[in-house]
Known about the structure:
Blueprint: H1 2-12, E1 16-19, E2 22-26, E3 32-41, E4 46-56, H2 57-65, E5 75-79, E6 92-94, H3 98-122, H4 126-136, H5 139-152, H6 156-162, H7 165-169, H8 173-187
Antiparallel strand pairs: 1-2, 2-3, 3-4, 4-5, 4-6
Helix pairs in contact: 1-3, 2-5, 4-5, 5-6
Amino acid sequence: MADDVLTERLREVGFLRVGRGIYERGTASADVQGWLGLNESVADGVRLLPFVGVRHRAVETMLGRLGASAYSGPVATVQLGYLMPEGGARWWNFRGETASDERAAGDLVTTVQRFALPFFESNRGLPALAESVKTNADEDSRAYVLPVIYRLLEQPQLAEQALDAELRADESEAGDGYRSFVDRFMRT
């Protein structure tokens, strides 16, 4: 029930369901998609913790060419609640009661419109996306994505500075993979 209600409400504001709990929406740029992921907990009904991010075609294409397609999903992801004035995690509860679920879906979609849509639009350009990646991405994602963004911005010095020295020195499998990425990155 909640899934159907929410999918319909999100469709009404331009989102397309691309997987369970995953929605995308176009922006004013054909190369950029807004992304909404709904993390789910099933304690006392269904609790949704939404994350938003941006998918950028040029960034994803370059990551794929460099063998880092695992990092080519949404970048600069952040919990929706952190974009709100309260600046904290926010859950939406669905309890299987029609009226209550309709209200929760309406509130979630309104919040997405007020805070996620401006986030998507503000991150269409690569300079703004780079700043969001610095602020919102986890360390591993940042190590792959930020050099690519700077390369696309034709800022080679910043691209090289963004390469993660700690991960390059890591003796684990993750370090091996990153060194391979860096080698391909430096040769292109």
